[in-house]
Specification:
The chain has 6 helices and 8 strands, in the order E-E-E-E-E-E-E-H-H-H-H-H-E-H. By secondary structure, the protein is of the alpha+beta class. The termini are far apart. The strands form 4 sheets. It has a two-stranded antiparallel ribbon. The chain is elongated and about 65 Å long. The longest helix is centred in the C-terminal third of the chain and has 19 residues. The protein has 2 domains: about 35 residues, Wheat Germ Agglutinin (Isolectin 2), domain 1 (2-Layer Sandwich), CATH 3.30.60; about 150 residues, Tetracycline Repressor, domain 2 (Orthogonal Bundle), CATH 1.10.357.
């Protein structure tokens, strides 16, 4: 045995102490997580982490459900009024921009978006008879919605910041009647609008 180790029990050896660097940890105003004070982003004299990007997240628990444009998170709804330029034309909402592409003739499309309010445009579009709808509509409507939603948040910085402020929470259109774009009455719908919104959020956070 090496004489330098004779009589020593490694289990009883006292480890050498190293100096501890004290770091100040503070709570992010947006997500509530702990962050190093020197890494915090200050906005309105309040600290935020890099993930929140200076945008508050009001409710961090569970999914975000939206439906009425006048209620919390209503900006996620296509019925929310905001200017959207799409395919060379200005619209008052993303709903108008989306529904404008549904009829097979321009006269009917113009009639749809002439409705007094976006939700009336949607009602009129849902009532179109099969021979008034372009024959390839079911095959293109998802991609059209993706492009319209992208245009909405790309052109409206305030809405884009609010979208990013939802963090990584699941977004769900809480429609009791629509199982395609929303979750439906039983909550088991496709939620395609919610999925598109989350795709758009991911794009602006990590790609753009």
């Amino acid at each position: 045995m090496d004489e330098n180790h004779e009589g020593k029990d490694p289990e009883n050896e006292v480890p050498q102490k190293h100096p501890i660097v004290e770091r100040t940890r503070i709570e992010c105003t947006g997500c509530g997580g702990l962050i190093d004070a020197d890494m915090a982003i200050q906005r309105d004299d309040k600290p935020y982490c890099g993930e929140c990007q200076g945008q508050p997240i009001v409710d961090r628990e569970g999914p975000i459900k939206f439906y009425r444009s006048s209620r919390p998170y209503g900006f996620l709804s296509n019925l929310y009024k905001c200017s959207v330029e799409f395919e060379g034309r200005m619209f008052r909402s993303s709903e108008d921009a989306y529904q404008f592409g549904k009829p097979k003739d321009i006269a009917t499309a113009e009639w749809l978006v002439s409705a007094p309010k976006p939700h009336l445009c949607a009602v009129a579009a849902h009532a179109l008879l099969p021979w008034d709808i372009r024959p390839d509509w079911n095959g293109i409507k998802l991609e059209r919605m993706r492009k319209v939603v992208m245009a909405k948040f790309e052109q409206n910085e305030d809405l884009r910041e609010m979208l990013l402020a939802t963090g990584k929470r699941w977004l769900m259109e809480d429609s009791p009647t629509d199982k395609f774009w929303g979750i439906g009455k039983k909550g088991d719908g496709c939620n395609f609008l919610g999925q598109i919104l989350m795709e758009t959020r991911k794009y602006f956070r990590y790609v753009r």
